Amino acid sequence: MNSHSRAWRRLTGAGLAAGLMMVAGLAVPGLSTTAHAAEAPPTLDLAAYRGKVVYLDFWASWCAPCKLSFGFMNALHATYGDKDLVILAVNVDHDRAAAAGFLNAVGGHPQVIYDPKGMIAGHYDVATMPTTVLFDRTGKQRFVHRGYFPNKTREYDGHVAALIAEHP
Amino acid sequence: MQLSETKYRKLGSIAAGLSALSANLLSANAAHAQDASAPQNTEAHLPGLMDEPAPGAGSVVLDSSVLFYQETGGRVQAIEPVINGEVHLDNGDVISGGLTYDSLTGATPNGAAPSTGRQTFSSIIRQATSTQVTSTSASGNSTVTSIPGTTTANSVYTQPARAIPLASFHDHRVAANLTYNWQADADTHVKLGGAFSVESDYTTFTGTTGISRDFNQKNTTLSLTASVEGDISRPHGGTPTAYENLNTLVTGGNDHKTVINVVGGVTQTLTRFWLTQLNYNYSTSSGYQADPYRLISVVDNSGAPLAYLFESRPRSRQRHSFYWGNKLALGPTVADVGVRYYTDSWGIKGITAEVSEQVPINRYLYVKPLFRYYKQSAANFYEPYLISQSGATTFSGLPAYASSDARLSRFSATTIGGRIGWRLFEDSELYVEGESYRQAGTHTIAGAPGQLAGLDFFSGVHAISVMMGFKIKM
Amino acid sequence: MIRTICMGAVLALLGGCAHVGVKPWQRDSLARAAMQPDNEGNISGYHDHIYFSKEGATGGRSSDGGGCGCN
């Protein structure tokens, strides 16, 4: 056999090995341990928060900007917590323990809602991580922050302050 | 009994789950609940070394390392410390840059064919003296005669019989690069960068620009990068013209080439565990492509060397390269599988296949064995030597181009190696990688004339590399 | 023949791009450091240098895409 076909045989061999590994990868979808405790409801009922401003934040332990956004959220809670600001942090981790590790590391006591199947995230059309959806006191969705940029904190704060200032 | 205990425990947890679920739906007090469902029987954990998320805004990453490279048989030896840094700004922009220094010593084939007798060569090296000085090397193999009034000297060296002739060298190189990457909007990044590399006889300047755009909720990323590179070849004795005889005084000065490089690619997430990438790379190079020190032997019908001429290469080269790479998360491990097909206007075709598997040992340690296979065909003007029918001094009927550079020959190469990564403390990684790179090709040339039949022409390398470094995120 | 199959696989991959992928909240595995397209750091520079010096072929991977899809 000439060397050219030998080369293609080796390339195909490598490709087959790659293919086998890919099939194996698809067949073993997730070996991470997912705690199957109670799941979050398919949609979040915000009726309970009517009359308050709701800061709905979607986060995950694997999202680096989320770590910075938690510092910002803790600051928001300190400033507006007693002025009718409700912060809900929806976690989309598959692995509950990873989320717990993240919360231990960032500190603060945010209200966390677990959404491991992403049903709430899907309902609010989350397009990037993290995403924050702001609701005014009447329960209407007013602002969406896609991603978290430390140089935009004044803009984010401005939106919250504007909604807090509105009294229906 | 054990089985029923497990069953009851499961039921118990389901009941607990259901009650939490209904509490959430009905309760007006959900706002004041700590969690909708608290973690049960799980320990909080932080990501392991392989799982850390990529650096985000506000972080600085520094990676410093050194490479020790040694070819067997007294060939090339190199030491290369490198430092690279990345600053991630608050607005999503990234500034990255790096510095490289390398020191190379050893010997490399000078391009001449082996012979059954000893061969003597001369080369111009850099050495500044004001008067003529002649010195002999410790082994007696070479003498160096400085040329007064210049910063160069003539080095005459002899190589043993029946061996690939080697020329020794010593060089230092300094290189630097800097790139600014703008986040133009949520899905678009634009980059602009520059680099330079300087050694005693070669200088390169490069300017790069690129754009990348995400689609489909960042599942698809298209990217396009273009760069322009200017290389100046400043060999110590001037650049020889094609087929110039080694014994004539080379009168050329510097020469240069320009390279334009374009890479277009698509990166696609296929599943939660499979990322794939396709790249096409086109490069066009015009100007001086030759190695200014490389010879090619002209031999007669009995294989005896008649003359050593400097090689001749085309003044342009177009390259095409197709790359398909994959990252696959197989449980806790990550496999990296890639293939590349290369072809160029000089007739070289190459295929590359590489596989590596990164395996976590625990939260602080991983190992990553790797295997790479490479094979290329020869350039269409590759010749291990030229045969002259005509005479001893003037050669008619030489091909337009000829080079005996092993990089243009037909060979295959395998790399086997592995890396260990160790998290010394949070946000850091100490890594060590060792590799054995071995080239293989034909040794004797079928149909070689006279004394060349049966001589070993193979000048491929076997090299051991050890790379160690420390990466820290702040 | 084998060449055709390889190219076909490649085109099939490209053709199915529009609806292939994962939701933004399902990128946990893709966000891992080990899953980034070019995460070799300084070592990829060393490899490029060694293979460029010893072989004829050039070109390879780029570092765009993949990852957590954040920001």
Summarize the structure.
Chain B is 5% helix and 54% strand. Chain B has 474 residues and is mainly β.
Task: Describe this protein's structure.
The complex is a heterotrimer of chains A (168), B (474) and C (71). Chain A has helices at residues 3-27, 64-80, 96-106, 119-123, 153-165; strands at 53-59, 85-91, 111-114, 131-135, 141-146. With 168 residues, chain A is an alpha/beta fold. Chain A is elongated and about 75 Å long. The termini of chain A are far apart. Chain B is mainly β. Chain B has 2 domains: 58-116 and 168-473, Porin, CATH 2.40.160; 119-159. In chain B, a hairpin with a 2-residue loop joins β18 and β19. Chain C has 71 residues and is mostly helical. Chain C is flat, with a radius of gyration of 16 Å. The chains are: A alpha/beta (168), B mainly beta (474), C mainly alpha (71). Chains in contact: A-B, A-C, B-C. At the A-B interface, α1, α2, α3 and β3 of A face α1, β16, β17 and β18 of B.
Please identify the oligomeric state: heterotrimer
The fraction of residues in strands of chain A falls at: 15-25%
Let me know the largest β-sheet of chain C.
none
What proportion of the residues of chain A is helical, as a percent range? 40-55%
